[in-house]
From TrEMBL:
<keyword id="KW-0175">Coiled coil</keyword>
<protein>
    <submittedName>
        <fullName>TRAF3 interacting protein 3</fullName>
    </submittedName>
</protein>
<dbReference type="InterPro" id="IPR051176">
    <property type="entry name" value="Cent_Immune-Sig_Mod"/>
</dbReference>
<feature type="coiled-coil region">
    <location>
        <begin position="1"/>
        <end position="120"/>
    </location>
</feature>
Amino acid sequence: MKKVLLEMEDQKNSYEQKAKESLQKVLEEKMNAEQQLQSTQRSLALAEQKCEEWRSQYEALKEDWRTLGSQHRELESQLNVLQSKLQGADSRDLQMNQALRFLENEHQELQAKIECLQGDRDLCSLDTQDLQEAMWAMAPNADGSDCCSTSSVPGQ
C-alpha cells in the first residue's frame, strides 16, 4: 500500500505540477492579452484622435470649398459683366471710329471746297480788280471831261 500511496503521491505531485504549469501558462496568456488590450486601446485612442483631426480638417476644407465656390461664382458674374461692358465699349469704339472716318472725309471734302472757293474768290478778285481798273479808265475825270477825249490827254 505504501507503494500505491507513493504512486498516488507522485501522481498528485505530477498533477499539481501540471496544474501549476497550466495556471502559469494561463496567467502569462492573460497578461499578454491584457498588454495587447492596452496596446489596442492606445491604438484605438490614437486612431480616434486622428479621425477627429481629419474630420475637423475635412469640415474646414469643405467650408473653404464652399467659400471658394461662392467667390468663383461671384468672379464669374463680374467677368460676365465686364465682358458685356467690353463688348459695349468695343461697339462704341467701332461707332466712334466710323464717325471719325466720316468726319475726316467730310473735313477733307470741305477743305477741298474751301480751296476751290478760295481759288474762285482769287479769280473773282482779279476780275473785279480788272473791271475796276477798266471802269476807272472809262470814268469821267474829276473836272467833268471825258477820259477818252483827246483833250484829256496831258500836254494837249
